[in-house]
Design brief:
Elements lengths: L1 H10 L5 H11 L6 H7 L7 E2 L5 E2 L2 H22 L5 H12 L1 H11 L18 H17 L1 H16 L2 H6 L4 H11 L4 E10 L5 E9 L2 E8 L2 H18 L1 H21 L16
Antiparallel strand pairs: 1-2, 3-4, 4-5
Helix pairs in contact: 3-7, 4-5, 4-7, 4-8, 6-7, 7-8, 10-11
């Protein structure tokens, strides 16, 4: 509290004081290095470069913030749900750190009004604000450290915008989302049960693999086939978002598979129609 008061007095004499107060209203404290917060709000479509020619955007901060956010939310969820199983804790954390939730949080705290992006970019229709939220967490970590990040999440985010008990009961159908994506992009998706086994507490467990155009896109484990499929689909969706090499691989596989199918499928003239039903 005293530190904030001292910073506030100092800022009264700065020309850029409005920027500091803008971040203060979101953070609850004054930034030490305001530049890292400003960079957290720069979408790559701006195409800025440093004096050394390196891209200046929020992608590296997003990577860092993603890891910090996972740790903080995992800590909070672990302490809140005492005695709950790993699968439940993992699913609850996933619901909080998924892009839809982060997008909504970014809008609720006003980050969306500060993000800078090119109007030519279509990214404002996707998860740009959620990505900026992650980058913002990365900025807090670099500027103030882990404890301040956790305090921000607990005091500013969870107390005001997230009901943990309600969130834990929320259904997120990752399998449905993956199938919807596959239909939109005309991709073949399949779920295959790899194995069924018994865990240390003698509970049945299921291990499922999801394949896109016959290529492995992820595996998931759960206490039911449905849960294992959901976990596998979640991993596949994350891979599709983050792994450009994998996206290229499945596009190549799609072209190859469809070419083979068209080559090997019989023509209409050669089909044997003797077994087809006829109308009297």
């Amino acid at each position: 509290m005293l530190r904030n008061q001292i910073d506030k007095i100092r800022l009264l004499f700065r020309k850029d004081r409005e920027s500091y107060f803008c971040f203060y209203r979101i953070l609850g404290f004054f930034p030490r290095d305001i530049k890292v917060y400003q960079q957290a709000l720069l979408h790559k479509s701006i195409s800025l470069r440093s004096e050394k020619g390196r891209p200046v955007n929020n992608e590296r901060l997003e990577f860092l913030g993603d890891a910090i956010l996972d740790a903080i939310v995992g800590d909070i969820v672990y302490c809140h749900f005492e005695g709950r199983r790993e699968g439940f804790l993992t699913n609850t954390r996933s619901k909080i750190v998924q892009r839809e939730t982060l997008n909504k949080l970014a809008v609720e705290i006003g980050l969306d009004k500060l993000v800078k992006y090119s109007t030519r970019s279509s990214s404002h229709n996707s998860y740009m604000y959620g990505n900026a939220f992650e980058a913002f967490i990365g900025a807090i970590y670099l500027d103030q450290g882990y404890d301040r990040c956790k305090q921000f999440m607990e005091k500013k985010i969870f107390q005001n915008y997230i009901d943990l008990d309600k969130m834990s009961r929320k259904e997120v159908n990752f399998k449905s989302k993956l199938i919807e994506w596959s239909q939109k992009n005309k991709m073949e998706v399949s779920f295959e049960l790899i194995e069924q086994f018994i865990d240390e507490e003698h509970n049945p467990m299921f291990h499922t693999e999801v394949r896109i155009e016959r290529l492995s896109a992820g595996t998931g484990t759960g206490y039911s086939k449905k849960e294992s499929q959901q976990n596998a689909a979640q991993i596949a969706l994350k891979k599709l978002k983050e792994d450009d090499a994998f996206k290229e691989e499945i596009l190549t596989a799609k072209e190859r598979n469809h070419t083979v199918e068209n080559t090997t499928s019989p023509t209409t003239e050669s089909e044997d129609t003797s077994e087809l039903p006829t109308h009297e």
